[in-house]
Each structure stands twice: as structure tokens, then as C-alpha cells.
Description:
globular; 11 strands; alpha+beta; three-stranded mixed β-sheet; binds copper (II) ion
Amino acid sequence: xxxxxxxxxxxxxxxxxxxxxxxxxxxxxxxxxxxxxxxxxxxxxxxxxxxxxxxxxxxxxxxxxxxxxxxxxxxxxxxxxxxxxxxxxxxxxxxxxxxxxxxxxxxxxxxxxxxxxxxxxxxxxxxxxxxxxxxxxxxxxxxxxxxxxxxxxxxxxxx
Length: 159
Ligand SMILES: [Cu+2]
């Protein structure tokens, strides 16, 4: 008992030493973002393009969710949201070649719905490695099937 207690005390002291001598990485959410665009839907097809996404921990990403289709679409992955820190989500408007930010949302985000012809930007830093295989769009069409039933699914890997 006394032995294991002294071991853990030593470990704590080593950890403290390592923490105080290591260089601080700074504010990871303030890096220049790496931009990645995912199209939500394409004419006549419910799909994520691309449907396989790869990110690295500790880097800031600006995930541009663009909906060029005529249906609203969700970007939903519960597993993904457990692996990231969200800095913000922005709603942007593209008009006459000029991009204007309409709103910013801060805090934990669970899913995003983008309306036809619109764009949202998800700024986040992956904090844990993992594989999310639950990316989907749950909107149910007139045929009673969801977009994910029609193949609007995807996978996200964080390394
Ligand atoms: Cu959809």
C-alpha cells in the first residue's frame, strides 16, 4: 500500500515536472484553418461528396458544408462530435462573388442542417483520435425513406 502510494507520488511529481518544462502549444483554436469542403447532396442524388473525411488532432479545420442541391440536408455524426472541440459555426452568404458572415454560433454543436443553395462553416479542432462511421442525413423524403437509406452516409477518421 505504502509502496504504491509512493510510486503514484513519484509519477505525479514527474508529470508536474514534464508539464512545467514542456513548451505550451498555445491556443490551438487560433491557428490558420485548414479548409475542407463537403457538398451536401448533388443534383438527383442524396450523397456527401466526398463521403470519407480525414482530420488530424490538434489542427484547426474550417469544414465548409455546401448544399448545391434542391433539398435541405443534415450533417449528423454523434461520434464525430465526441472527438472535436468546436470553436464556432458560421452561416455565410455568397452574393455577387462576395462572402458575408451572417451569424456565428459558439458552444458544443451536435448537427448542422444546411438549406438548398446555402453554406455553413464548422470551425473545430479534433482532440481525440477515432473513427466515426455514423455520418448521415436523417431527412425523410416523400417516399418514406431517409436520405441515409438512399446512400447519404459517410465516415470520418481522426488520426
Ligand atoms: Cu439529406
